[in-house]
Amino acid sequence: MAxxxxxxxxxxxxxxxxxxxxxxxxRAGISGTKPRVPVDADAxxxxxxxxxxxxxxxxxxxxxxxERTVAANxxxxxxxxxxxxxxxxxxTRDLSIDFLGVRRATPxxxxxxxxxEMAHDDADLxxxxxxxxxxxxxxxxxxxxxxxxxxxxxxPEGSRLFQLYWxxxxxxxxxxxxxxxxxxxxxxxxxxxxHLLGWRTRDLDLxxxxxxxxxxxxxxxxxxxxxxxxxxxxxxxxxxxDAAAPPVRVTPKAVAAGIRIARKGTALTGSGLRxxxxxxxxxxxxxxFLDVFSTPALTWGDLAKAREWTSLPIIxxxxxxxxxxxxxxxxxxxxVWVSNHGGRQIxxxxxxxxxLPGVVERIGGRVPVVFDSGIRQGTDAVIAxxxxxxxxxxxxxYAYGLGLAGEAGVREVVRNLLAELDITxxxxxxxxxxxxxxxxxxxx
Length: 444
Hints:
Shape: globular
Helix content: 40-55%
Structural class: alpha/beta
CATH architecture of the largest domain: Alpha-Beta Barrel
Radius of gyration: 22 Å
Low-confidence stretches: 1-8, 237-245
CATH topology of the largest domain: TIM Barrel
CATH superfamily of the largest domain: Aldolase class I
CATH class of the largest domain: Alpha Beta
Number of domains: 2
Distance between the termini: 38 Å
Strand order of the largest sheet: 4-11-10-9-8-7-6-5
């Protein structure tokens, strides 16, 4: 459905969104038109499972190990109940918040999700346009399918943050942050919990990692520092990261992967597909990425380098312990992001909603606290905001919407979450996000 004509960055844009959304859906239903994507969270996931390839759904929906952290993230919200207070004037409600010095229309962000080309060809471009139409900041993944400059051009009016996976190459880190600043990003989100790739059983069972197919590495192949690393590698003796790795058997799938890698490598070769197929650069790009993607040696002391690389605010993503929240303050960062990577890194990890109150208490309002992992409904967002989160990030649900209906699907998913947030705010007796607090909730 078409976005509201109200200016997306105006805090008034989200007011009355629940009434508008329900009216649009029910009016369309008179002529037999149903929503493009299911409104129910379970139905949305089930529809995405049917629509996406097995590999794409496994990568997006899957978690680490037995996926107990994924389940705990969701189940953790069951401890909390919203405590309604009737007979209050809630005719006018305001969903806006202050975040990074700007008054935002809603308390939502879109979390960084990589390799969105697995869900839709327009990938990050579609997500950016949908987010901009609703005034929701989009955290652009380091593992995006399009370079950050192209995402900016696709939605120049949108608000964007840039997620950095701290690479083994400081020169590459600095280059990525310079580009993020030049392309209009408002902050840098340093992801801390992916210095080693989690034990993701669904992907392992399928023997499928998209990066080995040159997917999700557009930020790298468009970067001048990375391009130089690739050229140096291609001039070397070999391109294997593991000398003991077995040779790839020539199968139809292997050929298709090779063509995909070559097609992605045209940016490196500066030539067409035929020339890229003969060039060592595309394969060298994949191997270089696998070498430099992350570093398990990253420590608190390294964070000071980021201040040298950019003047943008820095948010640390992956904070779940109060002591680490305190260290983040000592390091002088501009925000913390409570997240366990959607349960994709450690099985049986602490659920984020259980970690949130302790982090909020330790932060003490000195910097904003973003929350993700487990948000599937608008009521989940109400609980997280009442427990002290400044803003709430949406992850998998918008990827499912992208896979089902592209840009329009992302827009409908986010719109539905906003509408349910608005309805819950009013029905619980509140008129603004600022009014939510501990007395909004009851523990079971």
